[in-house]
Write a structure and sequence with these properties.
heterodimer; A: 12 strands; B: 52% strand
């Protein structure tokens, strides 16, 4: 079945360090891919998305490129800030089937990022 | 900004008690999801609805959990009787009518969750 695998956390970085959080997926068809972020005490928020191969999603300095050949969607940021401390979830949408789709998201287990001043 | 509203934000109760969690989806969204988040299992999909009809509740323990949408502005998740292993954060999310590939690209919008502790 469809699945998402993220690198295990927690990840601890110093401010202004480079961030990579790895995400790979298994899916039939052509899913859309998402990164969600969860700040402490809050629900998940969409960070960025990519809907087809070679698309690059970007937001707030974060980027991820949809790589079909490696089935990956790694999250990167060139210079992290303390305010980026959160849990990051990679997700894919259930590909549509004939007649429509349920719009499900399949999430990875999340990667906790802590950024120290 | 339109938001998904969940109540209560926190709930502490004793084992065996009934727990009801409520969710108000974003106006116009017709797909509603219930998730449970724990440290051990991560984020699990419990059930989801479209146009108030349940589409899939296979992720939910049927003997004690029930999910309903009495109207388009309210979704409920009930646990009766509650058990300590039900302690978790329960999230509701809503989305548009996921009927075509374009709408799949629309994100789900999450509420801030109900943090449930069963003693």
């Amino acid at each position: 079945g469809n699945s998402v695998t993220q690198m295990e956390g927690p990840v601890t970085l110093s401010e202004e360090a480079f961030l990579t959080i790895n995400c790979t997926y298994t899916a039939t068809g052509y899913p859309s891919l998402f990164w969600y972020v969860q700040y402490p005490g809050e629900g998940l928020q969409l960070l960025l998305k990519a809907t087809k191969a070679d698309d690059k999603g970007s937001n707030k300095g974060f980027e991820a490129t949809y790589r079909k050949e490696t089935t990956s969607f790694h999250l990167e940021k060139g210079s992290v800030q303390v305010s980026d401390s959160a849990v990051y979830f990679c997700a894919l949408s259930d590909p549509p089937y004939y007649g429509g789709s349920q719009g499900n998201l399949i999430f990875g287990k999340g990667t906790k990022l802590s950024v120290k001043p | 900004d339109a938001r998904v509203t969940q109540t209560p934000r926190h709930k502490v109760t004793e084992m065996g008690q009934e727990v009801t969690m409520r969710c108000q989806p974003i106006l116009g969204h017709n797909t509603v999801f219930w998730y449970r988040q724990t440290m051990m299992q991560g984020l699990e999909l419990l059930a989801y609805f479209r146009n108030r009809a349940p589409l899939d509740d296979s992720g939910m323990p049927k003997d004690r959990f029930s999910a309903e949408m009495p109207d388009a502005t309210l979704a409920t998740l009930k646990i009766q009787p509650s058990e300590p292993r039900d302690s978790a954060v329960y999230f509701c999310a809503s989305g548009p009518n996921f009927k075509d590939r374009a709408s799949l690209n629309q994100p789900q919008h999450f509420g801030d969750g109900t943090r449930l502790s069963i003693l």
